[in-house]
Amino acid sequence: MNSDAISSIVILTGAGISAESGLATFRGPDGLWEGHRVEDVCTPEALARDPLLVHRFYDERRAKLAEVLPNAAHDALAALDAAWAGDLLIVTQNVDDLHERAGARRLVHMHGALNSALCAACGKAAPWSGALSPGTACAGCAAPRLRPDIVFFGEMPYEMDRIYDAIAEANLFVSIGTSGAVYPAAGFVQTAREAGARTIELNLEPSAGSALFDESRMGPATRLVPDLVRELLQ
Ligand code: APR
């Protein structure tokens, strides 16, 4: 690839980039959602109906973060972030902290983060580790309304203006480890194409959006991502 022609990159990541670190994906054979119906753990209605189940589901996933490490794919993206002189934005659908633990800085968590708690009363988010019980008080407004800082289905993802602004300027859009099953992230590739960007998919298997990419490379992220970063930094 002629990286000289590339000045601005947007990279979308999904659960597949963290799979080789030992975190379950959502729609694979042992997918997380298979353990729970989405409607039971990842909607505002679920939180209202059974707060203990929802908090426990995210408490388990938050606790798991202490057992896993960033993999070579996270490390390669962090190295690209550090070395890339042009514009770059990593947009992750993941709520794990592996990108930041690898050292990524130009990063957006569009679906929220496990290591953050959100006050449903005042809207403020704060770093959070450990269990989060229903009725925990917000340090800012004191309302007993802290919840997992996760964007539930039906809620607006975070930083969408920043994401679309970056895609509008991108001349390379790379999608890594996502099934292309959930919007608005699944529509980013089309938006990037319309902005004239070259589009590349790195995934273990064809995704719902594979046909939309200029190039689809199939394989594990820990091999494909370091290879692509080497091409970009050569
Ligand atoms: N390397 C590369 N890709 C992989 C690997 C791997 N080692 N392992 C799995 N994959 C791919 C799978 O082939 C699949 O296409 O990663 C993708 C994971 O897809 P999903 O489980 O659907 O996860 P994701 O696309 O991130 O889901 C998007 O849906 O459930 C919501 O909010 C949730 O952010 C999530 C969103």
UniProtKB/TrEMBL annotation:
Main localization of the protein described in the UniProt heading: cytoplasm
Entry note: cofactor: Binds 1 zinc ion per subunit.
Ranges annotated as spanning the membrane: none
Cofactor: Zn(2+)
Binding positions (Zn(2+)): C119, C122, C138, C141
Binding site for substrate: Y58, R61
Keyword ATP-binding: no
Superkingdom of this protein's organism: Bacteria
Reactions that this protein is recorded to catalyse: N(6)-succinyl-L-lysyl-[protein] + NAD(+) + H2O = 2''-O-succinyl-ADP-D-ribose + nicotinamide + L-lysyl-[protein]; N(6)-acetyl-L-lysyl-[protein] + NAD(+) + H2O = 2''-O-acetyl-ADP-D-ribose + nicotinamide + L-lysyl-[protein]
Residues the record marks as active site: H111 (proton acceptor)
Enzyme Commission number(s) of this protein: 2.3.1.286
Boundaries of every Deacetylase sirtuin-type domain copy: 1-234
Matching Pfam families: SIR2
Residue sites binding NAD(+) per the record: 14-33, 93-96, 177-179, 203-205, 221
Function: NAD-dependent lysine deacetylase and desuccinylase that specifically removes acetyl and succinyl groups on target proteins. Modulates the activities of several proteins which are inactive in their acylated form.
Domain notes for this protein: 2 residues (Tyr-58 and Arg-61) present in a large hydrophobic pocket are probably involved in substrate specificity. They are important for desuccinylation activity, but dispensable for deacetylation activity.
UniProt similarity note: Belongs to the sirtuin family. Class III subfamily.
Name of the protein described by the UniProt record: NAD-dependent protein deacylase
Taxonomic lineage of the native organism: Bacteria, Pseudomonadati, Pseudomonadota, Alphaproteobacteria, Sphingomonadales
